[in-house]
User: Fold this.
Amino acid sequence: MISLVTGAGSGIGAATAQVLAARGDRVVCVDRDEAAARETATGVGGLPVTADVTDPAAVEAAVEATVRAFGRVDAVACCAGVEVNEAAQRLDPRVFDRVLAVNVTGSFLVAAAAARRMIAQGGGRVVLVGSANSVVALPGQAAYAVSKGGVLMLGRALAVDWAPYGITVNVVGPGVTDTPMSAGSLGDPERRARLLDGVPLGRPARPAEIAEVIAFLASPAASYVTGAFLPVDGGWLARG
Ligand code: NAI
Assistant:
């Protein structure tokens, strides 16, 4: 398969590129960080593309580059995302806008640019990355929780709209995962203990454990799964 992964320069996106490449996909590694995209692409024998997912022209160019290089695009995994770390910024409207722009609009732009090609091809797979916080709001997370709730509904809405074209759309909901995004929280013993306290499996996910689920949803084996929200959270949501 020909797969495009955003946020491929780090964490869950990098792991997804690795899992997809290991199963034989040709992988296009998209990130706004040029060096990071190149590093992942080099590691997986893929094509690096520098693009900010909030820029429609850059997203279109990334999908164009995919089709130019490989002739088609079978799957996209929208892993690019941001969280707000500074408490002082959490009430800043510009920060709120940026989190929604990257997490929600960015996912939409990538999915839509790919879907235009997938419709012409007769089908495809779209996997969005929400969060366990798509359905639970934690203190201090208004922008992030709203964005991830938006990703969940985006996945459902697109699944309904694109089913007639043979395109499946699903949302993965990672729990706390050991990536650069969560390094600050997991590196602080008190915050780490608080975060993991409600996780029945008692540890953060490894990025590859999220990537394996994304890869399944981006495979032919998931042909009858669409509009699903699949938590990969060590049981956190089940415990309530
Ligand atoms: P990360 O920070 O390790 O990697 C994110 C990547 O996305 C980086 O390479 C970054 O350069 C890229 N990126 C950010 N904004 C971009 C933009 N506008 N355009 C293109 N690339 C951009 O983060 P991680 O942990 O791998 O997160 C991946 C996804 O998983 C995010 O959507 C995040 O919200 C979600 N997630 C992560 C969890 C965690 O505990 N790490 C938990 C739940 C969800």
